[in-house]
Design brief:
Layout (H helix, E strand, L loop, with lengths): L1 H21 L38 E7 L4 H18 L4 E7 L4 H14 L3 E5 L1 H10 L5 E6 L2 H5 L12 E5 L4 H11 L5 E7 L3 H16 L3 E7 L2 H13 L3 E4 L3 H5 L1 H11 L3 E3 L2 H7 L2 E4 L2 H16 L11 E2 L4 E4 L1 H6 L9 E2 L4
Parallel strand pairs: 1-2, 1-3, 3-4, 4-5, 5-11, 6-7, 6-8, 8-9, 9-10, 12-13
Antiparallel strand pairs: 10-12
Helix pairs in contact: 2-12, 3-4, 6-7, 8-10, 10-11
Length: 352
Amino acid sequence: MKKKLLALILAGVLVLSLAACGGNNGGSSQDPGDSQTGDTQEPETGDTGDTGDTSGDGQVYNIGICQLAPHPALDAATEGFQDALAAAFGEDGVKFDLQNAAGDSATCATIANGFVSAGVDLILANATASLQAAAAATADIPILGTSITEYGVALGIDGFTGTVGGNISGTSDLAPLDQQAAMIKEWFPDAQNVGLLYCSAEPNSQYQVDNVQTFLEEMGLTCTQYPFSDTNDMASVTQNAASNSDVLYVPTDNTCADNTGVIDNICRPAGVPIIAGEEGICGGCGVATLSISYYDIGYKAGEMAADILTGQADISTMAIEYAPQFTKKYNETICTDLNLTVPDGYEAITVE
């Protein structure tokens, strides 16, 4: 009896062992349609789950760009900025949200606040109003300005030394003001009265005309400022300036840049020449300017952005960068109409 019982037990153990071996024969008995939870299977070699960018670490950077207005100079700065970041991270490594405020400061604020809500990695503020709006919107997201004449004036910094600090840096479009003043004397040595035409709503324009006036008065010239508040009184102020000046100086001014046709239609028929603060304004209504490349300052801002995004630079210690070179240029058409002789060393502005 004991022998029979022992035999039955041994037989049962053998059956169970065979069943266990059969259920683990190099595969799974799981239903193909069943989704196993808690799977810790590693991806195959080379499969990182990345959706694709060339920044080297799988990071896709989101950049908000607020451009004050459509204008060739501002457009060139934006283009240079985008090209520099595409060169640094590849086309798939950076995404741009480019928005244009159409010249309206309130729209700049709306755009900047939208970038903050979206949590962009960096903001490019193209022109002064854009920079002011971005600075008011965030103290945390890095902000780079471009096409900004003077950061201390734009941001209300007393005793500005070249570094903003905090979350702001960028590039400037300021050409040396003493050299611009010298151009007036070079072109018009017999001029006595210089009118300084600008928009009073733009603090950087006030900064430029104040400094140019100082340099011109040191040369013995009489200067009168002709500020207009907006496009509503621009024509009347320009007419007054043209009637009382031998030559006008128009600084790098966004409102003037958007309305060169108005200025030209008044000044050229009156025979009053204009020395301009930048090439775009000169191409529309001026005779000469000390020109910079807006593409170059935009590209430099893009290089700065790449360093900030990758942690190679601390924006709070980054000094404002300036154009590497300046070129004397003239407007051939207006010079011909006014019978002006172009001094040596000037290049004609290319009209596209």
